[in-house]
């Protein structure tokens, strides 16, 4: 079966690859003329040898034609001799030419090859040094028209205006290139007398498109930060506040000098200073000229302070109407290489915020509310990023995004939710997680958008950008037109991006270190603005209650350990040792009184030295009738035992019942008979040694009410009686 092409179909032809125009510089001797000279010598020697051989052949033919011989044998011998002679002459000529060529070219070839090797090594080393210098110092240029970044611009000859596209170490020279007009141009950073950066540079992309765009940032590092947002959201005011603060105050305080990109930027800065003094900024005009860029950049250099190379700061501003509609005159290529993106949000443009604060706004603030919905702004930013970046779906962008909620001074609601009062409240409630103001502000801004029904914007930012931080700021600081600029929180926005992209510049400007906490510190959700402080307060109350309960338990424990008579206070005084005594006999019954109301008190004689307290009688003793307490006999001093060392009170333990021989007491009773005298030492017979000494009575422990926990007391459930679980073998085995 024929598997050829289908009839009537043709493969589309590839467009011809554009031929790179020749560079106007002359090629170096090492990469062209040297090899041409060697080839020319070899070619001339070969031609000379060929000419000599032709002459000898022609002469031999002429001689053989003028000579005649009658004998064929002689004629054949003559011809053979002449042929041998001619062949010998030709071989000699070839050998001589080769020897001559080798003898003449060998020294020159060896010298040239050595020179070529050394020159190629120097060229490679210089090219590598130049490339590493540009890469390590991150020297780059950003076109002011097409917004593309590149490291090697096109340089223009100052004499004839020729455009050199490859003014770097290579085939046109190592340290210098020679133009066709004879002008020597520096081609390496090693040339310090005439630096290459002083030449006029052009954008290679614009030059290929037929437009000559001059680049004045050659030899510097460019920091490109686009500022985007809806119309009247405060983008220009934010750029104005940061540029004026950095150029007029902060740079001089840290020993840095500033210079403007060109004369147009210098005039633009003068206008910024005037706007800052009057407290009002005009809207960014929409660019109608198709030959000019829609995005305007405020560009200025920073030098000194150990910065090498100098820094070119570019703050790109584009009209909000143009940004939202997406009808820019040029492709916004800055998103592919910028150091960070600033997204400015006007909170007054959010419907819920506007409904709450519209009645309290002043005339100027009410007239400057952005007309661009926040959702349209986010869609425009996502479309620009997708058009300039070739990234996989689902992969987040690594470019930092600073989201700024501007105009926080316009209404009390914004101040209470986003500014110092809310930050102080959350830092007091959650001191561990809200360890600094910036992290707390980030959560408050996210939570504010969620509460105002803009949670989809927060989710979109979280899904599209790997690094993001929210800020609350006020570019003007008050109502527009009521005095000079008093910005709040503007410097932190750009400083955060600078600290991530250029630590050397951040150190030169003494930018404070931003926390490395994973953001957000809390996951925003509905009602969390009031819920988080309430939960923290409840946890604090629970903690205080637990500490109080613990302190009460410790105090009760100390009171239980204290001896009787000193409740509530710990003591270390020795406890008096128990004194043995003799059981008294039956005492006579006193005569009845006329009016028996109560038994008379028992009088106890006091010992002159020690009056011991008798131990209490066991509560288990059963008596038939109440018997008055007998009068105790005084204890003689001779019978007083020596004091024993103090010992701690121990927990009362149960005594084991015993049987006393000859007393009639049963083991279940465990007590002696009422009328039976005790032994002399006051101890009972038996094996329990704890009964040998009388027990010291424990003090009564005060019963304190348990602390209230806020939950009703529930009686503990009655423990259930469990039975051993049967196994399957009990039923399966018929013999059991």
Automatic annotation (TrEMBL):
Pfam families: DO-GTPase2 (PF19993). It comes from the Bacteria. Residues 600-610, 619-647 have a biased composition (Low complexity). Residues 575-599, 696-705 have a biased composition (Pro residues). Keywords: Dioxygenase, Membrane, Oxidoreductase, Transmembrane, Transmembrane helix. Residues 1-18, 648-659 have a biased composition (Basic residues). GO terms for molecular function: dioxygenase activity. The chain crosses the membrane at residues 83-106. This is Aromatic ring-opening dioxygenase LigA.
